[in-house]
Specification:
mainly beta, Lipocalin, eight-stranded antiparallel barrel, 1 helix, 11 strands, globular, Lipid/polyisoprenoid-bd_YceI
Length: about 190
């Protein structure tokens, strides 16, 4: 039995209910810092489910992210991001994404459009995903993989905190890249 991922059929041929495996997935982000470097981080705790019938009929994706699980490898910065002037996790403990449209991009890609809610603000986002294959894992589960990203403006979601730099520019970019590296396990269907 091979454990190498492969794409034996187009992404539209899959059906069933899949749960995101948070242990083998990452929901990350990149922000430009002080105009010259990038700060990368991730949300370590999240849940998600994808459902589809063959041909992407009735396809849907729902993801809930625990905002307090933010991890930029700097505890002082993470604590600041949890506070009221940024994510305000005491009032807005979760982020949510709910798809509104899922369409194929060729045999090995998806465009997922949906509502992203951060800090009580909901905006439509579009995410292009590449299908990285499927595999039967050592425990007998069917596992599928997707990678994708999108760019959002954090101010659209009420994330306004900013500091100007003496020489011009700002400390934290408004544009944030969200990165998704997803492994999902088939539950049923």
């Amino acid at each position: 039995m091979s454990h190498t991922a492969h794409t034996p059929r187009p992404v539209t041929d899959y059906s069933g209910t899949y749960s995101i495996d948070p242990t083998h997935s990452e929901i990350g982000f990149t922000a430009r810092h002080a105009m010259v470097t990038k700060v990368r981080g991730a949300f370590n705790e999240f849940t998600g489910t994808a459902r589809t019938e063959e041909g992407l009929a009735n396809a849907s994706i729902e993801v809930t992210i625990d905002v307090a699980s933010i991890d930029t490898r700097n505890s002082q910065r993470d604590e600041h991001l949890r506070m009221g002037e940024f994510f305000d996790v005491s009032n807005y403990p979760t982020m949510r994404f709910t798809s509104t449209d899922i369409s194929a991009r060729g045999d090995d890609g998806l465009t997922v459009v949906g509502d992203l809610t951060i800090k009580g603000q909901t905006r439509q986002v579009s995410i292009d995903f590449d299908f990285t294959g499927d595999v039967q894992d050592p425990w007998g589960n069917t596992r599928v993989g997707f990678e994708g990203s999108t760019v959002i403006n954090r101010r659209d979601f009420g994330l306004e905190w900013q500091t100007a730099l003496d020489g011009g520019g700002v400390l934290v970019s408004e544009k944030i890249t969200l990165n998704f590296d997803i492994s999902a396990v088939k539950q049923e269907g």
